Amino acid sequence: MSNVLSQSEIDELLSALASGKDAPSPESAEDDKKAIRLYDFRAANRFSKEQMRTLHFIYDNFANLLSTYLSGTLRAVCEVEVFSIEEQTFAEFANSMPTPALVSVIRMSPLKGSILLEITPVIAYEIISRLLGGSGQQTENTDKAFTEIDLSIMECVIRRMLALMDESWEKIIKVNSALERTETSSQYVQIVSANEPIAIVTLNVKIGDVSDIINLCIPHVTVQPIAKKLVMKTLYSDSRPDKAKDDHSGFEEQIAGVKLNLHAVFNTTTAKLMDILNLNVGDVIQLEHNISKPVTVQVEHLSKFKGVVGTQNSNYAVRITEILKESDRDEYRDI
Predict the structure, then answer these.
(1) Who contacts 334 (Cβ-Cβ below 8 Å, separation ≥6)?
(2) Coil vs helix vs strand at 254
(3) In what order do the strands lie in the sheet with 302-312?
(4) How far apart are the C-alpha atoms of 185 and 209, rounded to whole Å?
(5) How far apart, in whole angstroms, are the C-alpha atoms of residue 79 and residue 167?
(6) Which of 42, 59, 61, 216 could be cross-linked to 195 through a Cys-Cys bond (beta carbons 3.0 to 4.6 Å apart)?
């Protein structure tokens, strides 16, 4: 049966003979079919390289902040660095979670949906041990279930971590992260469909001699509203000239209503301590300041102007006659 030609193959042979071309061999037709690769739309790469680089920059900053926080809180040398950022489906991430696991569901308002923060039991028990006064290195019994006290302690730590993450996102968008709940099993944290593309940010955490990872699961649907902002250009947009001009004008409006103290200062007058002790109400102090000479006007104790003393509407007043330059201000600084 393998030598029997189909009707389409017979038609190709007849057309090739009529045109004088070589007839295509069945093997070449099969090779063309093998070269065609089926495209799976469910596994589409929906995170661009630019977005992945931007996420790497954001969480590299977060890693530095988290390293400082853990070192100060645990009184130990802690190092946190971004190990990798890769794209997976949610099903692949859920299947790779250990049991038990410490997984927190985080809502990042105003972004859509939620993200997941997974802390491995090794890191979680190391943090708990050191916070309770232990020496850490509790890596031999990390398969036990988390108690209510363990979860309560870790939730306090996670809330502080979320504040640091908000700070890392500020250059892209201002977010307000909130802890919704903490689970110990992957079957209770199905935040998106199994085939939804997600970005997995893996942080390598080292506390003393103990080392393990923290994972952040960011679904594409969560960052989709800010996809255009999730580029490196946004991180440096504050340095644009037009942006700087707008910020400068806004700054002027903010400080226009600030109140400052003004002082009209005469020349320094010296007196003996005995004369000062003997002063009474009604006594006159002779100033060592010529009435024809201008007084120095200070703004918040900095000499800015020269002026002439007078009256206006039955009130003492000073009329500005000169604006002091920067070189002249030092001369009157101690007056």
Answers:
(1) none
(2) helix
(3) 262-265, 295-299, 302-312, 315-323
(4) 27
(5) 19
(6) 42
Please tell me the predicted confidence (pLDDT) of residue 31.
Answer: 57
Residue 235 CB neighbour total at 10 angstroms: 16
Position 83 scores a pLDDT of 93
In tens, the pLDDT along 133-166 reads 887 766 667 778 899 999 999 999 999 999 999 9
Q: Enter the tokens of residue 141.
A: 């019994």
Domains and CATH numbers, the chain: 7-37 (no CATH), 49-242 (3.40.1550.10), 262-332 (2.30.330.10)
For 91, the 3-state DSSP assignment is helix
CA 303, CA 158: separation in Å to the nearest integer?
51
Look at residue 238 and tell me whether its pLDDT is greater than 70: no
SS (H, E, C) 4-18: CCCHHHHHHHHHHHH
Q: Please check whether residue 97 is in contact with residue 118, taking contact to mean a CB–CB distance below 8 angstroms.
A: yes
Alpha-carbon span 270 to 298, nearest angstrom: 21
**Token pair of 284, please?**
């006159």
- Please report which helix (H) or strand (E) contains residue 52, including its range: helix 49-74
DSSP line for 150-174: HHHHHHHHHHHHHHHHHHHTTTT--
What integer pLDDT is reported at residue 161 of this predicted model? 95
Least confident of 35-39, 108-112, 130-134, 214-218: 35-39
The helix (H) or strand (E) run that includes residue 78 is: strand 78-89
**Side-chain-side CA neighbours of residue 265 (13 Å):** 20
Cβ neighbourhood burial of 123 (10 Å; 0-12, 13-18, 19+): buried
CA–CA dist 115, 138 (Å, integer): 28
Residue 30 has a CB neighbour count (10 Å cut-off) of 10
